[in-house]
Amino acid sequence: APHGRYVQVYINGKYEGIHHLMERPDAAFMASYLGGEPEDYDALNAVTAIDGDTDAWRMLQRNEVIDDYQEVQKLLNVENYANYMLLQFYGGNDWDWNTSQNWAAARPRLDDSGFIFFHWDSDLLLRTTRTANVITRGGPGNLWNANGGMRQHPEFLMLMADRAHALFYNDGMLTNDR
Q1: What's the pLDDT at 133?
Q2: Which residues pair with 49 in a beta bridge?
Q3: Does a structural domain hold residue 153?
Q4: N or C: which terminus of the chain carries fewer CB neighbours within 10 A?
Q5: Cβ neighbour number for residue 106 with a 10 Å cutoff
Q6: Are the beta carbons of 125 and 92 closer than 8 angstroms?
Q7: How far apart are CA 137 and CA 86, in angstroms?
Q8: For residue 19, is it within any domain?
Q9: Left if phi > 0, otherwise alpha if psi is -120 to 50, otherwise beta: which for 92?
Q10: pTM for the full predicted model
C-alpha cells in the first residue's frame, strides 16, 4: 500500500485543514518498490492509464479471459485482489467506489504477476450510515460480477474464504485484537 501521513495544510497563510499526503501508486512508485524502470509498468487510476496503457486491463475484462481462471491469473494477482475485495466488503465501501472510479491498480509489464490493487480515495470506508450493498457493486472494472466474474471460479472463492479466515480469525489483521 502507498505510504502516507497526515499534514496540516496552509495556503497563503490560510488554514485548509488536515490532509492525507501519500505516495501515488503510479509506475515510478512500482519501480521504486519492485525494481525496474517506470516504463516497465502499467498503472491505472480507475479505467484510465496514468502510465503505460490499458491493453492488459481490457484483455482481463474480455469474456473468454474472465471465464478462464488460468488466464485470469496471468493478468491479475488473485491473492491481492481477494484481500482488496475483502477490505472493501468489510468497510462497506459502496458509495464512492464502483467499476470506474476511486480505485488504482498497477502491473509489471514484463511478467505474468498481474495487476495489484491499491486502496485509493476510500475516504468513506467504514463510514456507512445505511445498509451497504458492496457485493453487487462489482468494484474495479466489474471483475467481481461481469459475465459471472471472479465469483464463478471455485478456486477463487476458496482463496477468498482462506484470506477471510486469515484476516478475521486467530489474531488476523482485521480482528479486534489488532
Answers
A1: 65
A2: 44
A3: yes
A4: C
A5: 24
A6: yes
A7: 13
A8: no
A9: left
A10: 0.84
